[in-house]
Design goal:
This protein is α/β, with parallel strands linked by helices. 44% of the residues lie in helices and 15% in strands. Helix 4 links the parallel strand 4 and strand 5. Helix 1 packs across helix 8, helix 3 packs parallel to helix 4 and helix 4 packs parallel to helix 6. It starts with 11 loop residues before the first strand and ends in a 6-residue tail after the last strand. The model has no long low-confidence stretch (mean pLDDT 94).
């Protein structure tokens, strides 16, 4: 088990979508930096519990939240308000997608579009809205929205996914103005990451994409987590920005 560094000692962090992939890597990074971390999970209770067992430090806990259901977000916010005086760090890492060819508009049915936007856009907004009082109580809180290079390349798993992430980037910029100076809001935009997030995309596909990028390396969840951590600990004069983590693949 890694030792906590203490950089974020005394800070409380919530990672929504924290039970797997980028979210889990971010939970580990924040805990190693000394934060007390709330792992927000939807269906990944077993994974969240296992993750808690490996974290350094004390006081970490897992809490259920389904970002497409604002009632569960309000319930989470109420529970946190009863237990803690403030929230210093919020990471919105929950997301959803399906692999659909961009020219197959019939396969991109209304139900799929609605679910993608509910999870990838409305979910982060509803979470920030519900947690705004706790974040403001911190005085210097930071929100990190996990976006995607699909937001500005127009590529990715499907058109609705790309559009939802473009909207999330706009949300990030708008809230950076609206919530300043007490709350910073930034986005971290990964390219293709070695997780099971996109169904049907395997390691071989990632290697092919990596070879076509300037740095010619597969992006790992830890790469994204380090970018999130940098937004929290080092980029303290930045808000409304987008940090791209893709090995230069967008160039």
């Amino acid at each position: 088990m890694a030792e906590a560094s203490g950089d974020l000692a005394g800070r409380l962090a919530l990672v929504v979508g924290g039970s797997g992939g980028i979210g889990a890597a971010t939970v580990r990074a924040l805990a190693r930096a000394g934060a007390t971390v709330i792992v927000g999970y939807n269906k990944g209770e077993t994974a969240a519990t296992a993750l808690l067992a490996e974290l350094p430090g004390a006081g970490h806990r897992a809490m259920q939240v389904a970002v497409e259901d604002s009632r569960t977000i309000r319930a989470l916010a109420d529970a946190l308000a009863r237990a803690y005086p403030r929230l210093d760090i919020l990471v919105n890492a929950a997301g959803t997608t399906r692999s659909i060819a961009h020219d197959d508009l019939e396969a991109l049915d209304d139900a799929t579009i609605d679910r993608i936007f509910a999870v990838n856009l409305r979910g982060p907004l509803a979470t920030i809205r519900a947690l705004k009082p706790l974040l403001q109580s911190a005085g210097d809180a930071v929100v990190v929205n996990v976006s995607s290079t699909s937001a500005f390349t127009g590529r990715g798993s499907n058109i609705a996914y790309a559009a939802s992430k473009a909207a999330l980037d706009t949300l990030t910029r708008s809230l950076a103005r609206a919530l300043a100076p007490a709350i910073r809001v930034v986005a971290v935009s990964p390219g293709s990451v070695d997780t099971d997030f996109v169904p049907g995309r395997d390691r071989d596909a990632l290697q092919r994409m990596a070879r076509a990028s300037p740095l010619q390396r597969i992006i790992e969840p830890d790469d994204v987590a380090r970018a999130v951590l940098a937004c929290v600990t080092h980029l303290t004069a930045a808000t409304g920005i987008r940090i791209v983590v893709d090995g230069g693949a967008h160039l």
